[in-house]
Structures are given as C-alpha cells and as structure tokens.
Amino acid sequence: MEEQKENRPQAARPPGKLQHRVSDQETNGKNTASNLNDFSDPVYKEIAMTNGCINRMTRDELRSKLAEFKLDTRGVKDVLKKRLKNYYKKQKLMQKEPVNGDSYYDYICIVDFEATCEEGNPPEFIHEIIEFPVVLLNTHTLEIEDTFQQYVKPEINPKLSEFCVGLTGITQDIVDKADTFPQVLQNVVDWMKQRELGTKYSYCMLTDGSWDMSKFLNIQCRVSRIKHPSFAKKWINIRKSYGNFYKVPRNQTKLMIMLEKLGMSYDGRPHSGLDDSKNIARIAIRMLQDGCQLRVNEKMHAGQLMTVSSSAPLEGAPAPQMPRYRN
Question: Spans of biased composition, class Polar residues (predicted)?
C-alpha cells in the first residue's frame, strides 16, 4: 500500500566489442575514484572506457546493442544505459574471476499490505491490515514461484469506509469472514516454513517503500498485542534500491513511475495487495536482470526505522517464527 498509499548522436558501432577513444578527462576525471580503491586492474579501466562509450550512444544504438545480446530493449534511455553497462561489467568481471552464485539470497518475499483507511487519512486514524499478500521470487530462475494471500478482519474499526472499499476492492463481506491478524500471521509463518525459507533456503523481505513494515505491520502488531515478527525486522525498500541504482530522484520511485520508466505497464488492479506485490516483483526481476544486487537497506530497531548500510554483510532473514504476545 503506497503512502496514501542527449547527448550528441554518433555513428552506430559495429557488433561485438565496443571500440572508441576516451579523453583524458574521462579516464582521469570521475573514473579515477576507482583507482583509489585498489581498482588498478586493467579490467576496471576497460570497464570505465566502455562506460564512456555507452554514455555517448543514442537510444537507438543502445536498443540495437541490447538486442544483439538478447537483452530487454524496453525502458527510458538512462535505464538502457545502465542495463548495457552492467552487462559489460558483469561479463568482464566474470572473465577475471567467476562469481560465487551461492552468495546471494535464494528467494525474495515481496509484501504489500492493504490497510483500513479514511479519505484524507486523518492523523488520529489507526490503520489495520486487511490483506496480507506474499509473492515468492526465485532469484535463480527470476520467476515468481508461489504466492500467498489472505484477508484480515480488523478489530478497532471493523466497518470499512466507502473510500477504503473503493480504493482496495476489499468488501465488508470479505473482511467479516476473514481471520484476525494473529491467525493470518500464523498461516503466513506456516506457509514460509513449508517452503523451507530460512532453513534450507536463504531469503529476505522486500517492500515498496518503508511504510509496510515500519508503520502498518508495526501498528498492527501493537493492536494485536504481539511482538514484531523477527523475519520482518529487516527488508529491501525497492524505492531506495531503484533510485540509487538508476540514479533517479525520490519522486521518480513510485510504483507506476518505476514500471513506466522500465517500459512496463501495471498488470492487475491497483491497490490489490497481491497485484501490487506481483508488479513490485516484476520491477525486482528487471533490476536483477539489469545487474542490481538488491539487498537489505532498512530495518526496525527498538521500534524505530533505521537505514542499513550498503557495506553491511549480506544476511538473510531468520527462519520464520510466530512472535510472542506482548505483556
């Protein structure tokens, strides 16, 4: 649930290796930072030179080169440049030293809650989760392997507002027949255990923004008098990852805009938690294909939202357990 919730063209390059001349400014300017970090290996200079060449390519040249390598040709020019740069970088580094395929999460669990809401979001209104979806993304196959979805009966504001029904498509009858949050959370934990997450397979959580975990889940756990589940204390905020990877401002990282910039359109019903989660998964897949290593970048600590440094060790979420009830 969202928070209411050219460069001058040059002649086309021949297929294969990108050949070009690079000015002293390109090699000795912004790329010299690499050398300060022990990036003296010639492969890094070659990568930097290739990046300079890619920066001067037109959109048509970029698409032609991507098609040559059987890569996706959709997206705005900056996305195409990033995709091609990462392809070349990955190829060069793999030649230098094969990548250890066991060092990344096996799965990513995408979650996008829907919660009770009022028009205008009055500050005193207490949001309660009414849909708990999980989309299981296999990072090896880059496919959605499974999904979970259950609706939740709200306790404090059991009657949904007309605004909430219209926004989410979740009717009063649906939530009246649903289980309360503790039971749904137990069902989520059981579902994750059946898929051996945190035991046989490493995994992490991913959300579209900070609110799902830091606000909606946090509030819901207090309402239900249970502790915050340990598996949901750290997550990937894909908005941050997208903005940092594609170098775009924060106002360009909302779900619909991210899809549009990647050359995709929304599939399903907006503000359906499951459909939102599937579309977020599509963005995650494209980012992984483009060479982004999605990694945990936010966490809850002592009830507060905190940033996780990109230099922190890559750690998967713990095996899911039902949290204890609060005293």
Answer: 25-37
Return d(Cα 307, Cα 300) in angstroms, integer: 9
Average pLDDT, the chain: 87
Catalytic residue among 26, 61, 128, 271: 271
Report residue 227 as tokens.
């502790």
Q: Are residues 200 and 235 in the same domain?
A: yes
What's the whole-number mean pLDDT along residues 23-42? 44
Q: How many CB atoms lie within 10 A of CB 309?
A: 8
Residues 192 and 256 in one domain: yes
Check if the beta carbon of residue 298 is closer than 8 Å to that of residue 306.
yes
The answer to whether 127 is a known catalytic residue is: no
Higher pLDDT residue, 94 or 271?
Answer: 271
The answer to whether residue 143 is domain-embedded is yes
Q: What is the pLDDT of residue 18?
A: 52
- Distance, in Å, from the CA atom of 139 to the CA atom of 141, rounded to the nearest integer, reads 6
Q: Are residues 208 and 258 in the same domain?
A: yes
115 and 65 fall within a common domain? no
**What backbone torsions phi and psi does residue 48 show, to the nearest 5 degrees?**
-60, -40
Q: Say what the alpha-carbon torsion angle 318, 324, 325, 326 is, to the nearest 10 degrees.
A: -80
Say which CATH number the domain at 250 has.
3.30.420.10
* Catalytic residue, candidates 26, 114, 128, 131: 114
For the beta carbon of residue 37, count every other beta carbon within 10 angstroms. 8
120 and 254 within one domain: yes
- Give pLDDT tens digits for 243-273: 999 999 988 999 999 999 999 999 999 999 9
* Residue 114: active-site member: yes
pLDDT at 140: 95
